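Aim 2 progress update. The chain analyzed this quarter is reproduced below.
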Amino acid sequence: MLVNARHVKNVSGRKSDVLDCQWLQQLMTYGLLSGAFRPAEQVCVLHSLWRQRGMLLRSQGRHVQHMQKALTQMNVQLANAIADVVGETGQKILRAIVAGERDGQVLAAMKNVRVKASIDEIAKSLQGTWRAEHLFALKQALDAFDFVGTQVAECDTQIEQQLQTLQVHDGEPAKGKRRGRARNAPTFDLRTQLFKMCSVDLTRIDGIDVTTALAVISETGADMSRFPSDKHFASWLGLCPGTKITGGKVMSGKTKRCANRAAQALRLAAAALRTSQSALGAYFRRMCSRMDKPKAVAAAAHKLARLIYTMLTKGEEYTDQGQAYYEERYRQRVLRQLSLRANKLGMQLVAAPQAT
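Predicted structure tokens:
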């Protein structure tokens, strides 16, 4: 049985392996230890592959920093004209520089039509010293970037094969709002693979994209029977309020510190709801008006976790009612509370006449 180390750390007397074993045996005898959640073996394979892919992407990001450092050392300020050196335009220019091209006008002519900077601005930013040692560093960083890219592609192949072994449902998700594929998302149809595994389309929840859905499913699996309710699921994620109470007085409601990868993915998804015109976006902005940003993110992530739990347990699709629906429900709830307070004070709530 895998147990939480926080539950067994208090050992009286001097610490030793023998005392730890005796303390664990005593706790187990009294029934005070509960096993930690561990998904099925096939899901463990999936989350190992997904974590390996995340490690490779972080490594690839470091090589991008090495490219930028080599450009800066040559006084080539390409970042002032192009926002991303690993985009289509940036990659064409960098590979041409490594191949031996030095003419700024020729390099700037490779820009994509979506780049706002003009050819003259890009050519001006490409005036540098072109020192041999920095060009060598740029070439090696570019080769390392390409090598990690091939490893990420191999990871995508393994993840796709593992998802196919976990399929329990035939069919495809319903057509919904079309979203562009993120740069670091797998190249295969991940949305369909997740639908065949979960029997529901988690990306219908606003803020949840395919990578976030896979990050959560790879940690928990599609079977939520180990969690009796959505509250237990949120507690395992570390997104529920704290219960530090003594003498009937709440001392702290702070969420516990947790390194859960699924919770981290949900927090990132919640933070992306800032400009969303959905009901979830309206909820997140209302939370931001009431509390500081980290707490609002945790509250929105908690709601996302409960929606995912409900979809996986009930097998029902999520339908967003929109921002106007949420605002109207919130308004009716506030009016009902004000009416109750007015009745307790012996008063009556009267609507103001509408201006014509």
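The CA atoms of residues 205 and 318 lie 6 Å apart. The chain is about 55% helix and 0% strand. These observations will guide the mutagenesis experiments scheduled for the next reporting period.
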